[in-house]
């Protein structure tokens, strides 16, 4: 693919490696450039790296009215050799196309996605934040640009990749366990809907739930299925729990749960983690009873942005609180976090192909 480069003038670009003086947070910062491709006349065209900045979008663009838009979230890390490596980016490219298919958006070859992302990271490599626990968060997305108000798939799209020097999603990082609200009022997805995709609208639909969670002092809602009987996932991460024998359980992937690459990685690592990792249908009643009896000793969430986020307690809408173990980060969760992040940072070798040099 022939990528066109229209870079910022050298004097306006970062010239030294980014050494942040304060916590970078999650998703706040941008780098100098973005990668773009357009879809028109039935094909993806015009791959280019351009200065990061506003788009010109028609007020009637289909994405703005009907939410025909999908996105991804991936990360790149700096290893001890001072080079940048992406983590399982091929899986994100594959999933972007799965999400696209669910929203009738034309897919973009994985090879082209990876080439564009690598080109962008290469240009903005000085933006890698030299801060403990930070990385380059990669946000590829596709949105419908055709200026038309009838409800049918757009014939024009833009694929964009932006980068954000970021730390973990939950500001307390790994060390403080979060609380989740178990609610029967909010549902993230129903079978036959868009739950298995990273559709923009899924996140718009989670905002009210997020507000309700905050009113209970919780970070997010733990979504149940439509019958309020099964545990599904959290707005920005899959859910897991750990039994007292160390077994890690992740709810089975269905068409109402996003197939998390972090969960898949923990499943793939399996024995390397020194414990059994499996998926099953998780019934809420049994889950709560098993926490109360001590059969379940730890719980948390898996996600690219969230990494491994320990959950210390659950609160119900009647204010009943159920604490997992002693409510703090447990040793098993700590080990999962350590192994995953050590592989990402190249401190230990993961399965072949998981980290790719940029
Ligand atoms: N579930 C939802 C709804 C998400 O938004 C995310 C984040 O991407 C995840 C799960 C975790 O997926 P992954 O580990 O691929 O980032
Ligand atoms: C990610 O983990 O990359 C996500 O996309 C979650 C996001 C909603 C912050």
From TrEMBL:
Keywords: Amino-acid biosynthesis, Aminotransferase, Branched-chain amino acid biosynthesis, Pyridoxal phosphate, Transferase. GO terms for molecular function: L-isoleucine-2-oxoglutarate transaminase activity; L-leucine-2-oxoglutarate transaminase activity; L-valine-2-oxoglutarate transaminase activity. Pfam families: Aminotran_4. This is Branched-chain-amino-acid aminotransferase. The keyword Amino-acid biosynthesis applies. CDD domains: BCAT_beta_family. It comes from the Bacteria. Pathway: Amino-acid biosynthesis; L-isoleucine biosynthesis; L-isoleucine from 2-oxobutanoate: step 4/4; Amino-acid biosynthesis; L-valine biosynthesis; L-valine from pyruvate: step 4/4; Amino-acid biosynthesis; L-leucine biosynthesis; L-leucine from 3-methyl-2-oxobutanoate: step 4/4. Acts on leucine, isoleucine and valine. One of its GO terms (biological process) is L-leucine biosynthetic process.
């Amino acid at each position: 693919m022939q990528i066109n480069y229209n870079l910022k003038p050298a004097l306006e670009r970062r010239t030294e490696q980014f050494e942040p003086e304060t916590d970078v947070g999650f998703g706040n910062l941008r780098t100098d450039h973005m990668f773009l491709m357009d879809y028109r006349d039935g094909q993806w065209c015009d791959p280019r790296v351009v200065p990061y900045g506003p788009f010109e979008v028609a007020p009637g663009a289909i994405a703005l009215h009907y939410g025909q838009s999908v996105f991804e979230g991936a990360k790149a890390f700096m290893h001890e050799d001072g080079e940048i490596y992406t983590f399982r980016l091929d899986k994100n490219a594959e999933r972007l196309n799965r999400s696209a298919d669910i929203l009738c958006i034309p897919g973009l070859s994985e090879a082209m996605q990876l080439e564009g992302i690598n080109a962008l990271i290469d240009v903005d490599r000085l933006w890698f934040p030299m801060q403990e626990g930070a990385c380059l968060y990669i946000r590829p997305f596709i949105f419908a640009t055709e200026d038309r108000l009838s409800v049918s798939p757009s014939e024009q799209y833009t694929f964009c990749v932006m980068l954000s020097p970021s730390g973990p999603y939950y500001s307390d990082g790994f060390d403080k366990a979060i609380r989740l609200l178990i609610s029967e009022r909010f549902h993230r997805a129903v079978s036959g809907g868009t739950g298995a995709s990273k559709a923009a609208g899924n996140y718009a639909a989670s905002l009210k739930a997020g507000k309700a969670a905050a009113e209970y002092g919780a970070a997010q809602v733990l979504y149940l299925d439509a019958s309020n009987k099964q545990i599904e996932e959290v707005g920005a991460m899959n859910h897991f729990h750990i039994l007292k024998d160390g077994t890690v359980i992740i709810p089975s992937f269905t068409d109402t749960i996003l197939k998390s690459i972090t969960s898949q990685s923990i499943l793939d690592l399996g024995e390397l983690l020194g414990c059994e990792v499996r998926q099953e249908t998780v019934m809420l009643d049994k889950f709560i009873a098993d926490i109360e009896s001590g059969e379940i000793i730890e719980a948390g969430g898996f996600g690219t942005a969230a990494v491994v986020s320990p959950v210390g307690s659950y609160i119900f809408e009647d204010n009943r609180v159920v604490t997992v173990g002693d409510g703090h980060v447990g040793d098993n969760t700590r080990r999962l976090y350590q192994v995953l992040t050590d592989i990402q940072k190249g401190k230990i070798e993961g399965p072949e192909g998981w980290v790719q040099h940029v």
